[in-house]
Amino acid sequence: MLYKLVIEYTEIRGIQADLANMPSVLAGTLYQIDVKDGNTTTVHNFKPIDRAVEIYDVAARLSPQKLPNSVRAILSAKPDLLQITYQAADTKLTFIIDQTAIINIIRGYMPRLYILVFSLYSLLGIILYFVIRRFYVAPLNTLTSTLTAFAKDPTTARPPSKALHINKEFQDAATALVDLQRNTITEMRQRDRLADIGEAVAKINHDIRNVLSSATLVADALLNSQDKQVKRTAPHVVRSLEQAVDLCQSMMDYLVAVPDPQLSTFSMRDITNELTDSSKMQITYSGPAKIHADRKMMQRIFLNLARNSINAGATKLHIDIWRAGHLGIIDISDNGHGIPRQQWDGLFQAFKSHGRGGTGLGLAITQDLVAAQGGHVKLSRSNENGTEFRIQLPVEIFQMSDDRHQPSWWPKLNLAS
Q: How far apart are CA 169 and CA 177, in angstroms?
């Protein structure tokens, strides 16, 4: 547009009478021309300036700040006037024109521009779709199908497809998949072997228990013998047989899967009385009169911990049950000589007993029984003054009142034997 105006002005050669006949003036587009020649400035007015004038520098670079003005001008029904300048040698021509003609030209190109932009975006979208499908969706589907097939039949390894070698991320996933399948199959084979061994041990264990039961009856008869030598050695035989029976029973308990807990509300007084009779220890208790849990499991848990305490030289056992937020806490402490620090790490591992005559299964079974009820057991302290284990169970063990939101709603029961 600027060069068109310069050409029109050059053809007229600046004659005032002829300037009015310039096509841009006749079309009503050109409002004013300022001609600066040296130190002289001549102003040619063709129409009154009736709105704001936007100054546009042809030599300046396009900037993002000008975009809003351009968009506003295109959308405006009556855009601002535009001032543009042309510099040639000593002559400087400044034109003030109506932007409507320029905007009409731009609006004429808009449909084609929209089509071009839409076509470019469509082409870009198609390319992007195929790139994502080729480099991400296809390998991901292959990985998913391989994992699904392995989940259905984990005894057979499936080599990863070559589609997973398309980039480093999927190559790492393929490597991890191979390791997962190999380790899983190895563990399953080991599990099957252990299951076979466990079944065989269970059968042998059953036969051994029958033999030991018969031997125990004979040992009981020996206790009543009149022979002094026999009578002196009979208690040692009985204790040995009892330890062997306990070992067989512990082995059976460990090999058999822990059943689902059968919850019920039971008296802690009955539990402590049974525990006293079984362990021959002095039992003290502080806590609710009743709790809601699996009675058989809790009895076995207390008995296993009591036997551990006896092995540690304890004569007294204290049980304290209290509430901490959403947890029911059971603390079991004794007055034994404690557990050495170096034995703490493998304390709940099976067959890791450090006590004389122990099986190493008591704490392992205890951990399984607590976990079956949704809880957790840990060693909270152990020193020369005794040992304390802490069992954390869901707060539902306190289901005896509608006032469970109270911090100490349960009836306290203090028992000492």
A: 12
Q: How far apart are CA 308 and CA 356, in angstroms?
A: 11
Strand segments, DSSP code E, in 38-150 are 40-45, 53-56, 81-88, 91-98
16, 71, 133, 358, 364 from 280: Cα distances, Å = 129, 95, 73, 18, 23
Residue holding tokens 């002559």? 91
CB atoms near residue 350 (< 10 Å): 18
Q: Are 359 and 374 in contact (CB under 8 A)?
A: no
Give the amino acid at 295: R
- pLDDT at residue 29, rounded to an integer: 83
In angstroms, the Cα distances linking 373 to 263, 369, 405 are 9, 7, 22
Residue ranges in the chain whose pLDDT is less than 70: 13-17, 59-77, 193-228, 230-257, 350-360, 400-417
268 CA to centre of own chain: 39
Q: Which helix (H) or strand (E) holds 105?
A: helix 100-132
Contact 29, 97 (CB under 8 A): yes
Residue 82 backbone phi and psi in degrees, to 5: -120, 130
All structural domains of the chain, each given as residue ranges with its CATH number in brackets, are 2-98 (no CATH), 260-416 (3.30.565.10)
Q: What is the model's pLDDT at position 340?
A: 85
Q: Which residue has the tokens 């295109």?
A: 74
Q: Are 316 and 284 in contact (CB under 8 A)?
A: yes
Distance CA 103, CA 101 (A): 5
Tokens of 23: 């096509």
Q: Say how far apart CA 364 and CA 254 lie, in whole Å.
A: 8
Strand partners, 382: 387
Handedness of CA 264, 265, 269, 270 (dihedral sign): negative
What per-residue confidence (pLDDT) applies to 212? 63
Residue 46 vs residues 20, 52, 96, 103, 333: alpha-carbon distances, Å: 7, 16, 10, 21, 107
Closest CA to 398 of 299, 296, 297, 287: 287
Render pLDDT for 284-322 as a digit per residue (tens, 0 to 9). Answer: 999 999 999 999 999 999 998 998 898 888 999 999 999
In 224-294, where does DSSP find H-type helix? 228-255, 268-279
